[in-house]
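sorry to bug you again but im stuck and you know this stuff better than me. below you get a single protein, a line of residues and a line of whole numbers that encode the local backbone shape. mainly i need to know what kind of three dimensional shape the backbone takes. anything you notice is useful, everything is just below:

***
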Amino acid sequence: MSTRAGARKRQEGFVRGLKPAAAPALARDADDAEFDRLVYGRVRLGILSALAVSEPLTFNDLKALFEVTDGNLSAHARKLEDAGYISCRKMFEGRRPRSEYRLTSAGRKALNRYLAHIEAVIKAMRRE
């Protein structure tokens, strides 16, 4: 079973394990949000959250916030950029390269969908 299929199966099992009244609402919310795996990771969620609060942020700002390596941050930022969730502006300050990141409207929507999904899960769990 692929990782994606296994994750979907676990998510469906989680929804099925809820009380009957909570499961349909949560399943509907989960389908709407499709639990965006691109947003789910610690670093990616952190990047989107940080940019939602304070933008622009530089590569070094983000690196210091999440205490990750250059390569790790670069890979996560590239995935978000490829999805259209963040934009990157590259420039030079003197002879030093500088990358500034901003949250796009698609990124803000993806973050809000993710937060709505998590809130639905919390709300359903508190009703038990």
